[in-house]
Amino acid sequence: SSGINAEWPLRPGITTQKAKPMELEKFGEFIAKTRSSDPRDDIEELVSFSKLFSEELTLDNLPRQYLVAICQLINIDTGFHTDAFLRFRLRNKMNSLKKDDMMIRYEGLEAMTGLELQNANAERGMRAVGVSIERLRNQLDQWMILSLDKKIPMSLLLLSRVSTMPAGNAITYEDLRNAVAHLPDTLIGEAKITLAAQKGEKIDNRSRIEAVKAQEEMIKSEKDQQARKDLIDSEKDRIKEEQEAKESSNTRVAANLQIKKKKVPTATLR
Questions:
Q1: What is the C-alpha to C-alpha distance for residues 159 and 180, in angstroms, rounded to an integer?
Q2: Are the CB atoms for 194 and 51 separated by under 8 Å?
Q3: Of 96, 94, 120, residue with least CA distance to 108
Q4: Counting Cβ atoms within 10 Å, is residue 242 exposed (0-12), middle (13-18) or buried (19+)?
Q5: pTM score, two decimals?
Q6: Which of 149, 150, 147, 154 is nearest to 91 (CA)?
Q7: How far apart are CA 59 and CA 236, in angstroms?
Q8: Which of 40, 72, 168, 182 has the fewest Cβ atoms within 10 Å of its own Cβ atom?
Q9: C-alpha angle with apex 199: 194 to 202, nearest 5 degrees?
Q10: What percentage of the chain reaches a pLDDT higher than 90?
Q11: DSSP class of residue 111?
């Protein structure tokens, strides 16, 4: 026997204790768990990492189908609008909902009428028709716990409602997990970069390059959308101008005929 204890440090100051996982590693494991069939959620971890997906970061990195789905959830007309316009409308609506949450909390749920409770639930994508007043209050209370107390971003709360359309019940942590699980990889990549900056950790170049490429593709897509919209608007303006010119011409012709008719002398009877 060499007499060396395997549990001793190999060198002074160096131990065999396993290092604590870095935040990026923990985030990667968290995303993998949300996408697994048996995630075994850690609620504290879910709430903590959900805060990475701020309204600004989420809206800036969601593809069109996600933007349209949220708009449909909260009754924003999508029409033939560009992604940039939908993001603008959604930002305004989310800010309005956050202010409304604070006002409701200040005034109290008990002070709200049945109609006010229905409208507030419907605006947040929760079931509002055919349910009791008590249930409407409970749904709204659970929403505000996540919105105001847990500070879950409004964008993620609304995405959690999209999966329960046309009208889901009260929001749950399971809904939140499902929303995170279905976020696009481009947004997950941006969240990793944000987390690395917050924690002072290094992120691999591949992730940075992929994030830059995704941003470039999104910018190009928005420019193409705007160009198509400008072309359609220009064609609409041209058709409108032609129609107005035609109507104006017809009006002048009718007026001239009326003037000529008045100038024709009346025949004299003999």
A1: 9
A2: no
A3: 120
A4: exposed
A5: 0.69
A6: 154
A7: 30
A8: 40
A9: 75
A10: 47
A11: G
